[in-house]
Design a protein that fits this description.
CATH topology: L-amino peptidase D-ALA esterase/amidase
CATH class: Alpha Beta
Shape: globular
Radius of gyration: 19 Å
Strand content: 25-35%
Number of strands: 14
Number of helices: 6
Helix content: 10-25%
CATH superfamily: L-amino peptidase D-ALA esterase/amidase
Structural class: alpha+beta
Length: about 350
């Protein structure tokens, strides 16, 4: 399926990276496992299955031993994020970042801990414990969410498959069963170049009321209120931001807060029942677990120069949402529930009229 740029429309002003993806940030890897099985009536615990997991790795080394500077931000806290408080307090991430469905969060975290224990047998014995970071969206409209079908082997496979380059979008990984503005949504990604640095965004969409959808400022949702409109309303969104700019945790928090502006450009107000979370990290340096100086001397980004990075966040998050929408395909899940793809031909006509 196409991305928005393939339709002839260019969001924003800044240039993209080579893949227009979070993997344009050097060293960042993405791995996904997609689980689709069964049709028909919901059998809780058995199916149908429309779910998956997406893993984002800041680098391909041992993240517990070589942590990256990070920050988190909660736009609206109706969700089940794991690991945020320690990131908020200490300003580092020490595991892969996992995205999955709501009721699989704790199993995903447990599986991630098991993997980290194998890689670092001293955890909890000769050194500190570990802080898994997991986010989620509710895919229960299409998926047998009670079945918690994402298993340890799927978590391990997503991490092991993580690679750079092109990132699959739409009905894949953690976005397999999720929506966006009451269309089929899923995984989307984009990137921007600013000040010789790269900012990349990856989103797991499951949010938005149809009537609110705007694309490049055009009120697209208003034209599509009578077509293919399912019952579920707003849900959630996970945003992962990566950059190679030398930012500290506080500055990454400033970037994370700008993600909400990119989401707002697409029309959302961050509804009461929406869990909207942002995870931001920098790959510019690594904090060694076993060798920490009393005084750190990492490069510090100048505050008065940071505005282009803010713009890069807003543009990349906005376009990542559009890419999730245009890449997604119509999917039918449990009980015949269907999320329809955004009709890209109609989208093109609407944008041509408004731009």
């Amino acid at each position: 399926m196409p991305r928005l740029r393939d339709l002839g429309f260019t969001p924003g002003n800044l240039p993209t990276g080579a893949y227009n993806a979070i993997t344009d940030v050097p060293g960042v890897l993405v791995g996904q496992v997609t689980l689709i099985a069964g049709e028909g009536r919901l059998q809780p615990g058995s199916g149908p299955v429309r779910t998956g997991v997406t893993a984002i790795l800041p680098h391909d080394g041992n993240l517990f031993q070589e942590k990256v500077v990070a920050s988190v931000h909660t736009v609206n806290g109706f969700g089940k994020a794991v690991g945020f408080e320690q990131v908020r307090e200490l300003g580092v991430i020490e595991t892969p970042i996992l995205l999955t469905n709501t009721l699989n969060v704790w199993r995903a975290a447990d599986s991630l801990v098991t993997s980290l224990l194998r890689q670092n047998p001293g955890i909890g014995i000769t050194t500190s414990t570990v802080n898994p970071v997991v986010g989620e969206c509710n895919d229960g409209f299409l998926n047998d969410i009670q079945g918690r079908h994402v298993k340890p082997e799927h978590i391990q496979a997503a991490v092991e498959r993580a690679q750079g380059g092109v990132v699959a979008e739409g009905n894949v990984g953690a976005g397999t069963g999720t929506a966006c503005y009451q269309f089929k949504g899923g995984i989307g990604t984009a990137s921007r170049r600013a000040l010789d640095f790269t900012v990349g965004a990856l989103v797991q969409t499951n949010f938005g009321q149809r009537r609110a959808l705007r694309v490049l400022g055009a009120p697209v949702g208003r034209y599509l209120m009578d077509d293919m409109l399912p019952q579920p309303g707003p849900g959630s969104v996970m945003v992962v931001l990566a950059t190679d700019a030398p930012l500290d945790a506080r500055q990454l928090g400033r970037l994370a807060r700008r993600a909400a502006l990119g989401l707002a450009r697409t029309g959302t107000i961050s509804d009461n029942g929406s869990g909207d979370f942002v995870i931001a990290f920098s790959t510019s340096s690594r904090e060694l677990h076993d060798s920490q100086p009393v005084v750190e001397t990492a490069a510090r980004f100048r505050e008065t120069a940071i505005n282009p990075l803010f713009a890069a966040v807003v543009e990349s998050v906005e376009e990542a949402v559009y890419n999730a929408l245009t890449a997604a395909e119509t999917m039918t899940g449990r009980d015949g529930n269907t999320l329809h793809a955004l009709p890209v031909d109609t989208l093109s006509r609407i944008l041509a009229q408004h731009l």
